[in-house]
């Protein structure tokens, strides 16, 4: 499953956020640094209102959403790349993830200690990002000598790697994350092989006080501005509200949201942003048994999409029967969509669109 690391200084609200995400008390929130040691992992459903609509039309018994995994990586502090705090183990845990959510403290509360004794989300982000950049620099500088040698000897792969290492070193030496580098499509694979922490797609999460949950505050505005400069995305949440929402049943939840003037839990936005950040989208399979969302990469072809269900579907792919989501809804299901000529037969090269309702025909 695709994994998103939640990072940030101690006491910015990571555990609170993580608890809300997973609706469990597994990650104990506590008002002191270095509380959580092992990374906590939580599987989270991607909120997808379209799935409910499809299930209602088809009378599906079960609804199965897509999922992504969040990993709570606690204890990153200034000096982590040198083994301070809980040190290098954390960096290894992040390297194992597909994207990073940086939580920045944008709430003021004198009762909650701040490790650096001030509320300054930009500086919080910089401290964490600096540790990640230092870790990247160290790992590249360790490797570069060997790669240079091989490249000089005529090794084509090493030549590509060397070129990419230098592309990464330029921003890193100037104090910028590697994610600001524009990498061509051909180089993507080799670039990912560098396993840089600061080239992972990033989401800056502003944790604001309860009163700013709808529009954010001055601090979260600064974070959003910084995200644009760092080629990252930004989202505003109130971890406290979300943790309270998470334990309510749906009716109470709706009431509480309304009383706060909110349309949906901040978490839903966060999860959707994370999903988009990973370059993901969903297609659906719909029947009387279940309505199900399947996760694919934007740009995946029909056989690749079929392969997510089963590798045999990809190998033996013949064609896909496809109905656009809007058509399925407007015509109230597959039968009428077929009659209206809105069920298309698509071949191997069809690029699946977000929300397609699909059926696969395969041999074998
Ligand atoms: P972590 O160390 O980053 O995982 O932070 P925690 O989630 O453990 O939160 C540290 C403390 O801050 C806890 O006492 C939380 O209840 C509190 N906290 C988290 N988010 C908020 C918030 O939005 N507002 C306020 N006032 N307190 C919060």
Automatic annotation (TrEMBL):
SUPFAM superfamilies in UniProt: P-loop containing nucleoside triphosphate hydrolases, TGS-like
Record's keyword terms, sorted: ATP-binding, Coiled coil, Magnesium, Metal-binding, Nucleotide-binding
Domain OBG-type G: start-end pairs: 2-257
One Pfam family of this chain: YchF-GTPase_C
Any GO CC annotation of this UniProt entry: cytoplasm
GO molecular function, one term: ATP binding
Domain TGS, first and last residues per copy: 279-362
InterPro entries associated with the record: ATPase_YchF/OLA1, Beta-grasp_dom_sf, G_OBG, GTP-bd, P-loop_NTPase, TGS, TGS-like, TGS-like_dom_sf
Required cofactor(s): Mg(2+)
Superkingdom: Bacteria
Keyword Translocase: no
Coiled coil: 130-157
Protein name: Ribosome-binding ATPase YchF
Gene: ychF
């Amino acid at each position: 499953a695709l994994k998103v690391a939640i990072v940030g200084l101690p006491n910015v609200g990571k555990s609170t956020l993580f608890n809300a995400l997973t609706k469990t008390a597994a990650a104990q929130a506590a008002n002191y640094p270095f509380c959580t040691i092992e990374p906590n992992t939580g599987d989270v459903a991607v909120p997808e209102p379209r799935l409910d609509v499809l299930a209602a039309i088809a009378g599906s018994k079960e609804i199965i959403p897509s999922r992504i995994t969040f990993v709570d990586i606690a204890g990153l502090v200034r000096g982590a790349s040198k083994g301070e705090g809980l040190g290098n183990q954390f960096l290894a845990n992040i390297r194992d993830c597909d994207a990073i959510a940086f939580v920045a403290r944008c709430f003021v509360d004198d009762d909650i200690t701040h490790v650096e004794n001030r509320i300054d989300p930009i500086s919080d982000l910089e401290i964490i990002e600096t540790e990640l950049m230092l870790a990247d620099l160290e790992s590249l500088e360790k490797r570069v000598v060997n790669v240079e040698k091989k490249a000089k000897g005529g090794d084509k792969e090493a030549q590509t790697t060397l070129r990419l290492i230098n592309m990464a070193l330029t921003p890193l030496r100037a104090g910028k994350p590697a994610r600001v580098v524009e990498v061509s499509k051909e180089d993507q694979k080799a670039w990912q092989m560098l396993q840089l922490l600061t080239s992972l797609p990033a989401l800056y999460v502003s944790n604001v006080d309860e009163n700013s949950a709808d529009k954010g505050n001055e601090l979260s505005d600064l974070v959003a501005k910084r995200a644009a400069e760092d080629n990252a995305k930004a989202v505003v949440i109130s971890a406290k509200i979300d943790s309270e929402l998470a334990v309510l049943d749906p009716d109470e939840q709706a009431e509480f949201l309304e009383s706060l003037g909110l349309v949906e839990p901040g978490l839903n936005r966060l999860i959707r942003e994370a999903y988009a950040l990973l370059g993901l989208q969903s297609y659906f399979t719909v029947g009387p048994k279940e309505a199900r969302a399947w996760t694919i990469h934007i740009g995946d072809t029909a056989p690749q999409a079929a392969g997510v269900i089963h590798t045999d579907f990809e190998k033996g792919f013949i064609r896909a029967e496809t109905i656009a989501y809007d058509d399925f809804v407007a015509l109230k299901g597959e039968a009428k969509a077929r009659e209206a000529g809105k069920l298309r037969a698509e071949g191997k090269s069809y690029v699946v669109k977000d929300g397609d309702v699909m059926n696969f025909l395969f041999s074998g």
